[in-house]
Amino acid sequence: MDSRKLYPEGLKRVPERDVRLRDMRYLAQVDVDPAALEERWGAAEAICDDLAEWFCFAFSPMEGEAFFLQREVHHPPAHGFVLSVTEGLFSSNCAGRIVETLGIPGALVTEVNAEAVP
After folding, report:
1. The predicted structure's pLDDT at residue 90
2. What is the DSSP string of 55-93?
3. How many CA within 13 A on the CB side of residue 18?
4. Can you tell me the mean pLDDT for 38-58?
5. Mutual orientation of helices 34-41 and 92-102 as an angle, nearest 10°?
6. How would you class 54 by CB atoms within 10 Å of its CB: exposed for 0-12, middle for 13-18, buried for 19 or more?
7. Whole-angstrom Cα distance, residue 109 to residue 97?
8. Average pLDDT, whole number, for the chain?
9. Can you tell me the distance from the alpha carbon of 47 to that of 70, in angstroms, rounded to the nearest whole number?
10. Do the Cβ atoms of 81 and 30 come closer than 8 Å?
């Protein structure tokens, strides 16, 4: 996927339940202010899985692609949010473009999955 196709005007919030979880893959750790994220994109969804309760922001930048920003509610293991993406967004270039597209000043990628293609 060409990361240049990630545009703020094409980004939309989607309900977490509309994204197939089995299609998601960990891409990066993102440092972003939760209050700024909520101010720009609305309140986080609270979701639960077998591991924990999570704050989740789900987005679709284009047809067939999606990404999540998630943070454990009670005991987050790291500062910031986990960024998980669908296959077409699984690249280190996309990680940076996704953060830019969110439009949150000061947000940055702090770690990228070593398996992500450049």
Report:
1. 94
2. EEEEEEEETTEEEEEEEESS--SSSSEEEEE-GGG-BHH
3. 14
4. 92
5. 70
6. buried
7. 10
8. 88
9. 10
10. yes
Query: pLDDT value at position 21?
Result: 78
Structure tokens at 102: 């969110």
- Average the pLDDT over each of 24-28, 55-59, 72-76 and give the range with the smallest value: 72-76
Residue 56's beta-bridge partner residues? 45, 70
HSE, side-chain direction, 13 A CA sphere, residue 45? 16
What DSSP element (H or E) covers 27? strand 25-31
Query: Both tokens of residue 25?
Result: 């893959």
Check: CB of residue 93 under 8 Å from CB of residue 112.
no
Cα–Cα–Cα angle for 29, 33, 35, nearest 5°?
135
- The C-alpha torsion from 106 through 28 and 11 to 32, rounded to 10°, is -30
With beta carbons less than 8 A apart as the criterion, state whether 48 and 96 touch. Answer: no
HSE toward the beta carbon, residue 74, CA cutoff 13 A: 5
pLDDT at 8: 61
Are the beta carbons of 54 and 47 closer than 8 angstroms?
yes
